Structures are given as C-alpha cells and as structure tokens.
Amino acid sequence: QVQLVESGGGVVQPGRSLRLSCAASGFIFSSYGMHWVRQAPGKGLEWVAIIWYDGSEEYYADSVKGRFTISRDNSKNTLYLQMNSLRVEDTAVYYCARVGGNVVYFDYWGQGTLVTVSS
Amino acid sequence: QSVLTQPPSVSAAPGQKVTISCSGSSSNIGNNYVSWYQQLPGTAPKVLIYDNNKRPSGIPDRFSGSKSGTSATLGITGLQTGDEADYYCGTWDSSLSVVIFGGGTKLTVL
Known about the structure:
The complex is a heterodimer of chains A (119) and B (110). Chain A is mainly beta and 119 residues long. In chain A, 0% of the residues lie in helices and 51% in strands. In chain A, the strands form 2 sheets. In chain A, strands 2, 4, 5, 6, 9, 10 and 11 form a 7-stranded mixed beta sheet that branches. A 4-stranded antiparallel beta sheet of chain A has the order 1-3-8-7, with no helix packed on it. The radius of gyration of chain A is 13 Å and the shape is globular. The termini of chain A are far apart. By secondary structure, chain B is an all-beta fold. In chain B, strands 1, 3, 4, 7, 8 and 9 form a 6-stranded mixed beta sheet that branches. In chain B, strands 2-6-5 form a 3-stranded antiparallel beta sheet, with no helix packed on it. At the A-B interface, β5 and β10 of A face β3, β7 and β8 of B.
C-alpha cells in the first residue's frame, strides 16, 4: 500500500534552516510528481511546492520562493524540502502528497510533520 | 484572503443534502481541473473529488462534484455526523503557475 512518511520537523529559531524528508513506499516513486502542502495552526491548507516525477520542473508558492527548495532522490524514494531563512509565519504542519493524475489531484498524503519557528 | 472563495461554514441536518461552492476566475477554475478534499479533525486531508467530478475508489456516491464556468460545487447527500469536517477546493492557476486552495468550509451536521 502507498505510504508517505514525513520527518524532520521540530522547533527552530527564526532565520535558521531545516530540511524535511518524505519517505515513500508502496509505489514506483520515480513515476510520480510530488507536492509539499502546509497548514498553519487553526488555518487552511496552503500549497508550498511541486516537483515533477523526474525532478525536471519545480514550482513554488510566492510565500516561499527563494527560501525553500523542493528536491527528490529517486534512488532513495525520498522527497525533500530544504527550508532556509525561516520565519515565524512558516510555523505549520507540513504534508507531502503524491500527484495522482493532473497536478491538483493529490491522491495520497502523509501524516504531516510539525515545524515551529520561534525564538 | 484566498484566490478561491468558499463559504466559511455550512450546516444541515442528518440525512439532508448540502452544497459547498468554490468561486474562482478564468485563470484557475475556468480553465483547469478542480479537486475537493475532506479534512477530519486532527487528520491529513483526503481527496473526495478530482478532475471536477470523478470519485476515487472507495469514496461513496453521496459525494459529487460539478463545475460551471469559473465556479465549482461539492455536493453531499445523506449527511452523516461523520461528515463533519473541513472541506477544501483546489485547482491550478495558469497565470500564477501555482496550486491554489480555497479558504475551506466547515461542515456541521446538526
């Protein structure tokens, strides 16, 4: 069965960096595009970034462009989100999700990992 | 403020029907597919509808989706208390090259 397991969350000071990972299993990881989506406490869903199945294209939300980098290692079945220059407003649960068909069909989601940016 | 507009809340009695609207523009809903997601308290979102009106395997036909012009609608019939959740629409915005979500709608089954 398809499984997505995020890790790497925690408490970090503003301006510091953090790298999230999403370990995928149960499907051919290299055949699927992948997203990161976040949700601030008590707020709605906010899309963060997408990477094509082969890593050839990436797109970012304006709120993270230039600070966050999405990447993948298809040999390790793992998706990453490198987060630099973190801000208090980046505090959220971060989910990875698989592209099911068109880019807005998120067919499987991980359980999420909490990132708290605080001094 | 989200680019896609959803009502903050809707409510209905068990067994009744409810619809949730999602309003956008020609750069997003008008020319791209819409998906709908259900988020139960404390859990990750789950897809209910994709490609405007398709249900993934395992999603009951009580859930339906439609799109007309620059708006989309999620319909839920035979409401159950277990349907109480937040619902989000999502689509691609061709002008911005980003995925966008609606602000979410909280469904209360009275």
